[in-house]
Amino acid sequence: MDLVIVTGMSGAGKSETIRAMEDLGYYCVDNIPPQLILPFVELLHMESKIAKAALVSDIRSGEFFDELADAIQHMEERKVHFKILFLDANDSVLVSRYKASRRMHPLSTDGRIEEGIRKERKRLAPIKEKANYTLDTTHTSIKEHKESLKMMFTDNPREDAFLLNVTSFGFKYGICIDADLVFDVRFLPNPFYIEELKPLSGLDEEVASYVLSFKQTKKFLKLLIEMLEFLIPCYTNEGKSQLIIAIGCTGGRHRSVAMADALTEKLSAKGYWVSLDHRDIDKDVKNK
């Protein structure tokens, strides 16, 4: 059976996630107490008609939630095959979402949302460390979130495939907080200062050809691929099944986009399972 444990920060999008997982054919249970996970999984194994299940367990379980780590350990000891999906977002976005919903944070006894988020992060830290997949919903739309889930849970070519998430971003819009590896390509010549290239993006052939034409670009790309080919087996041996690689330039429109595209193309050609996202590609245009 394909089993996914969904958890993460309150307000990070677990409700949207469980609806999307249902659309992907998963049997879903929301807000299950950790103590019931293993008995429920055993029940699911007895029901041959259920091939895929997603269980949400989060801080809403109150004091019961602290037993999630024990539940995960018990499943590992029983050799139960499962994946953990952890949902996150930056604090300011979580605060905004709570204010918009006019709901109290489960751990905010004094009404201070920020304090609730701080406590929640601390309690969730051990679970996040164990997560196979981490999705940051800070800058993603519901549609983009659904596409990420579809990539993770329906397009995986092998059960043991290692997913590489490559994303471009602009440093002036903030670093990708869920990235495992961050690379700064602001050392490359900037197309932004070339009049005919400035209105274009790294997806355009003119910009991509310009960025990739330099010796330092070619050497950097070669060394980056060599490093990833070294790291991926190491991460796999440690139980990870996903690596988020963030490539940043100033605005996230030219250099980082071209480099993320080139990296994705080369990794895909080598047989790796790669997803690609350009987080900030249109922000400079929208802000004008």
Structural summary, described in words:
It is a single chain. This protein is an alpha/beta fold and 288 residues long. It has two domains: 2-153, Rossmann fold (3-Layer(aba) Sandwich), CATH 3.40.50; 163-286, no CATH class. The chain is 42% helix and 18% strand. The strands form two sheets. Strands 2-3-1-4-5 form a five-stranded parallel beta sheet, with helices on both faces. It has a four-stranded parallel beta sheet with strand order 7-8-6-9, with helices on both faces. The protein starts with a strand and ends with a helix.
In short:
Helix content is 42%, strand content 18%. It is built from ten helices and nine strands.
Give a topology summary.
Blueprint: E1 2-8, H1 14-23, E2 27-29, H2 37-46, E3 52-56, H3 68-77, E4 83-88, H4 91-101, H5 113-130, E5 133-136, H6 142-153, E6 163-170, E7 181-184, H7 205-212, H8 215-237, E8 242-249, H9 255-269, E9 273-278, H10 283-286
Parallel strand pairs: 1-3, 1-4, 2-3, 4-5, 6-8, 6-9, 7-8
